[in-house]
Specification:
By secondary structure, the chain is α+β, with helices and mostly antiparallel strands. The chain has a single domain, classed as Arc Repressor Mutant, subunit A (Orthogonal Bundle). A hairpin with a 2-residue loop joins strand 2 and strand 3. Helix 1 crosses helix 3 and helix 1 crosses helix 4. The radius of gyration is 12 Å and the shape is globular. The N and C termini lie far apart (29 Å). The C terminus is likely disordered.
Length: 94
């Protein structure tokens, strides 16, 4: 199962890096009630994604650590995504 979760976390980071995503949009797409598929929770706990306020709404972005992991594990994809992820305050949820 860890490989499945790790691959899904990479999918999440890639999805977030492609375009700006709101917290609501991210939760709608990635939150699950399955205790074995904790993609959002694991990515958040590992510091690979963050929530921040932007333009009057909560936005979710990959962290620098998330982008580095994506580059390491999926070098062919990394060049195609927006690498504008930057360090900033980490908020577990808005």
């Amino acid at each position: 199962m860890p490989d499945t979760i790790d691959n899904l976390i990479l999918d999440l980071i890639e999805w977030l890096a492609r375009t700006e995503r709101t917290y609501e949009e991210t939760m709608s797409a990635w939150r699950t009630s399955c205790p074995r598929l904790t993609v959002w929770e694991d990515a958040n706990d590992r510091g690979l994604v963050r929530c921040e306020a932007g333009e009057g709404r909560a936005l979710v972005r990959p962290t620098l650590a998330g982008m580095l992991l994506l580059k390491e594990r999926r070098p062919d994809i990394h060049g195609q995504v927006d690498s504008a992820a930057h360090a900033g305050p980490h908020i577990a949820h808005p």
